[in-house]
Design brief:
- The chain is built from 21 helices and 16 strands.
- It is α/β, with parallel strands linked by helices and about 550 residues long.
- A 6-stranded mixed β-sheet has the order 11-16-15-14-12-13, sandwiched between helices. A 5-stranded parallel β-sheet has the order 4-3-2-1-10.
- The longest helix is centred in the middle third of the chain and has 17 residues.
- It binds alpha-D-glucopyranose (GLC).
- The site of alpha-D-glucopyranose has 8 residues, from loops.
């Protein structure tokens, strides 16, 4: 494996960190395909979810890929158990007739965030504030290291969305609204991942962050010139720098779902930009197309999607696609194109010779120190009227996010939607203040009326959004074309969204102590009232597991 990873990295280094699919990889793919049955080829185009396919299924159906959806973890949820699970899938894939190795994919969007004890980095919104290319690349290297500790070599990241409306539930997954900065930071993350031997996946192609009203999976209504000037830019860079897998967006452009867009996928991405890798659909993304399942499979394959994330219905997908090929509605050339791309990337990555025995570090302090630095650099000081520094002050700490690290980590952490409970390995603001020598006492909100204010010099209210992911984080103000969804809220006003925090602030104000408000959130919200109620206000966004340097900063503030 070592030799192979070096060759993959040297390929990457050759082009800064991308790699053209070498002639030998393409040649190997073509040789293998010659001996494959149609069933085996379609197997390579199929990605099932681990809860719906066994390692024996991988062998029997020659499945090309398995994924873990958000929160889909083995039991126990340890790096060792993950590696054992992934290796079993991999070993069975080698026993299939074609012997093409399986590629296992996960969303390690801000660390290997499904796994207990992983280093959890700030979400992209914070990385955009930090805007540190070197540290973001370092994050990619560390996430790759922790992925490899679990035997995984494919990350459905970076998100390259250009954020638009902050009502979008995935706003925090974007590095921001500036095209140049989003492009540079997402490429830095991709560089770190790929130079460490893990396949990155810029997503979601195309225009995911620009939907009207911020509706997740909604409609981006821009003309072609605007699409190219804004949303296409990160993908132009990604292809140039060696992206070999790109995920297609659930969203639409001018009313046409991306999963059916032959123009943007085949003509532009594969043709004009000469993308040589493979495209991957999003989770049942083909089912958002019109018509029957057969219509959806046909349209998406012909549009140019190569690998299909069909977590549950993967057998039906395979049968349907086989029928479409046998009937001539999907030409074999399209199948061979998709499978060539997939196998060539697997070869270039060294997947044919994976060595699971190599040790990799996981959740170690050196990793956490980088996450800590990025968290500190992402902190925004909105207001400070003689509150900071906190040193030598007796601190009253309250609020739902004071000791609960689920809020500071946000969505895509342990569970798909994140957790409103402690994240193993994460440091709360309470612990971080303590560790940095602050005189801090935690007071539950309910007990605030009982305290003696003269026991304290300053109060900190640690608050924030409840964790959310994707459409569950949408804020809706007006028309919402998805009656089956329950959005996060119906206003951008912080106090209206979080009356529990308004209550805490009301109680705190009765103490006449100076108040430092600390709000964990995945997007800018309307906070005028909160800001007026506070003597100081800081926004850490969603900083992840490490708050040590943020604590040090507000204590010293020099
Ligand atoms: C989700 C997301 C995508 C993720 C995929 C697999 O629905 O849209 O970003 O990579 O499914 O979890």
């Amino acid at each position: 494996m070592k030799a192979v990873v070096i060759s993959f990295i040297s390929l990457l280094v050759g082009q800064a960190f991308g790699f053209e699919l070498s002639e030998s990889s393409l040649k190997r793919a073509k040789e293998i395909i010659k001996k494959m049955t149609l069933q085996e080829k379609i197997g390579q185009m199929t990605q099932a979810e681990r809860q719906h396919a066994t390692p024996a299924d991988v062998k029997k159906y020659a499945l090309g890929s398995i994924l873990s959806g958000g929160g889909s973890n083995p039991t126990p949820n340890t790096p060792e158990a993950w590696k054992k699970m992934v290796k079993e899938y991999y070993d069975y894939s080698l026993e299939s007739k074609s012997g093409v190795p399986l590629i296992y994919g996960v969303d390690a969007v801000h660390g290997h965030n499904n796994v207990l004890g992983a280093t959890i980095f700030p979400h992209n919104i914070g990385l955009g504030v930090a805007n540190d290319l070197e540290l973001t690349k370092k994050m990619g290297e560390i996430v790759a290291e922790e992925l490899k500790a679990t035997g995984i070599y494919w990350n459905f990241a970076p998100t390259t969305a250009i954020a638009g409306d902050q009502r979008w539930g995935r706003f925090y997954e974007s590095f921001g609204r500036d095209v140049e900065m989003v492009t540079e930071l997402s490429m830095a993350y991709m560089q770190g991942l790929q130079q460490a031997g893990v396949l990155a996946t810029p997503k979601h192609y195309l225009g995911d962050g620009g939907t009207a009203f911020g509706h997740d999976r909604g409609d981006t209504r821009l003309n072609e010139e605007e699409i190219r000037a804004i949303h296409l830019k990160p993908y132009i860079a990604a292809v140039k720098k060696g992206a070999q897998s790109i995920m297609i967006s659930f969203s639409s452009i001018n009313g046409e779902k991306m999963h059916g867009q032959h123009y943007w996928i085949t003509k532009v991405l594969k043709g004009e930009l000469n993308f040589q890798g493979f495209t991957v659909s999003d989770w049942n993304g083909i089912e958002e197309l019109e018509g029957t399942y057969r219509d959806q499979v046909k349209k998406s394959v012909l549009a140019g999607i190569d690998l299909f994330m069909v977590p549950e219905r993967w057998k039906e997908f395979m049968t349907t696609l086989k029928e479409l090929v046998l009937s001539g509605e999907v030409p074999m050339a399209r199948i061979d194109d998709a499978v060539t791309r997939i196998i060539a990337v697997k070869d270039a990555m060294g997947l044919f010779n994976l060595d699971f025995s190599t040790e990799h570090s996981f959740g170690v302090s050196a990793h956490r120190a980088v996450a800590d630095k990025l968290a500190e650099k992402s902190l925004k000081i909105v207001k400070n009227e003689n509150v900071l520094p906190l040193k030598n002050k007796r601190i009253l700490l309250t609020g739902k996010a004071a000791m609960n690290t689920g809020y500071q980590c946000g969505g895509w952490t342990i569970e798909w939607q994140g957790v409103e409970e402690n994240v193993p390995g994460a440091t709360s603001i309470y612990e971080a203040l303590k560790k940095n020598g602050a005189q801090v006492t935690f007071i539950n909100a309910e007990a605030l009326p009982l305290i003696n204010p003269s026991d304290f010099d300053v109060a900190i209210a640690a608050m924030g959004e409840k964790p959310y992911t994707e459409m569950m984080g949408d804020i809706v103000m007006g028309e919402y074309p998805y009656p089956d969804r329950t959005p996060y809220g119906y206003t951008l006003d912080y106090y209206s969204l979080h009356p529990e925090d308004k209550m805490v602030m009301k109680e705190l104000k009765k103490t006449n102590l100076p108040i430092l408000s600390m709000v964990f959130s995945g997007r800018p919200l309307e906070m005028t009232e909160l800001k007026n109620d506070s003597d100081a206000l800081i926004l850490p966004w969603l900083p992840g597991s490490e708050l040590n340097l943020i604590a040090k900063k507000i204590i010293q503030f020099n």
